[in-house]
């Protein structure tokens, strides 16, 4: 069930990116710049709360790459056993955030 939710979240995120009107293009560009301010870190450097959240919500997920920004938000590139992959965002307390 969690795999289905994960895939649906990825699909919804993809669809909303294309649903923006031209008035929001500048806002979207600013958001993309903010998302690109992540620096890569080793998965072992992730806070325990973040790794626990991944293990709890996505037990078959493997963290392929991890990134952190100045606000202590974490970008996680993960892959599931079934071959699907995606990106998750979490704060240092392990709460999921939308970017």
Automatic annotation (TrEMBL):
Keywords: Signal
Signal peptide: 1-19
Keyword Signal appears in the UniProt entry: yes
Domain of life: Bacteria
Protein name: PepSY domain-containing protein
Species, as recorded: Aggregatimonas sangjinii
């Amino acid at each position: 069930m969690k795999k289905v939710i994960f895939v649906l979240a990825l699909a919804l995120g993809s669809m909303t990116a294309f649903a923006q009107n031209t008035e929001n293009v500048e806002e979207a560009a600013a958001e993309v710049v903010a998302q690109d301010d992540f620096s890569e870190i080793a998965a072992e450097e992730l806070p325990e709360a973040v790794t626990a959240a991944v293990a709890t919500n996505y037990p078959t997920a493997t963290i392929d790459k991890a990134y952190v920004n100045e606000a202590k938000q974490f970008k996680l590139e993960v892959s599931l056993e079934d071959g699907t992959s995606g990106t998750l965002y979490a704060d240092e307390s392990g709460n999921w955030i939308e970017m």
